[in-house]
């Protein structure tokens, strides 16, 4: 190869390298421009960075209102429960008072009473009296007049008084006779114990607002 030919070949290669370097430089510049543009245009704006308006305050107010309502509901429930307990307690007290007022038959009622032999009439075997006997209670109110109708409330309360005095339960008691004992508020009845066949004559008197009270029991021969 001649000298001129080698020179031309080297010159072409140098030009090619120069062109390549220029192209590489252009590419690098373009990359820098593009990267700079991306950084500039993608920079977050203040409005984008700012947090959205907080709804905490309204929510807190709403929650507070709900909390106040819940507290009120709890207080109301507590008050209702307290009232219900008071009503139950009152009902129990009423039941207890009613139970105390309404005397139940006591099998040993006559054993606790003062006993004497005989009585005013010859058919009396023993006579019983007691200062501990009390009125049996009543559901009646207002002025009272003895009623001897077997379906009346007064009759049922007279039965209860005779049962209480003798200790014989009403379902074991047969009424032979029940009527007036000399006054509008005094009654007398003759009964028989179904289980023993024993007969008793019971005198009772009315106590206003408290019911019939036993006065005397006679065991008949």
SS elements, strand count: 6
The number of distinct helices, counting runs of at least 4 residues, comes to: 4
Average pLDDT figure: 81
Q: Provide the β-strand percentage band.
A: 15-25%
Strand order of the largest sheet: 1-2-6-5-4-3
The gross shape turns out to be rod-shaped
Low-pLDDT stretches? 96-100
Q: Share of helix among residues? A: 40-55%
Order of helices and strands: HHHEEHEEEE
Radius of gyration: 56 Å
Coarse structural class: alpha+beta
- Give the end-to-end Cα distance, rounded to a whole number of Å: 173 Å
Largest sheet: 6 strands, antiparallel
Describe it.
The protein has 221 residues and is of the alpha+beta class. Among the domains are: 47 residues; 107 residues, no CATH class. It contains four helices and six strands; from the N terminus they run H-H-H-E-E-H-E-E-E-E. Strands 1-2-6-5-4-3 form a six-stranded antiparallel sheet, covered by helices on one side.
Please specify the SSE layout and strand pairing.
Blueprint: H1 3-41, H2 46-49, H3 56-101, E1 114-117, E2 124-129, H4 153-166, E3 173-180, E4 186-193, E5 199-207, E6 211-220
Antiparallel strand pairs: 1-2, 2-6, 3-4, 4-5, 5-6
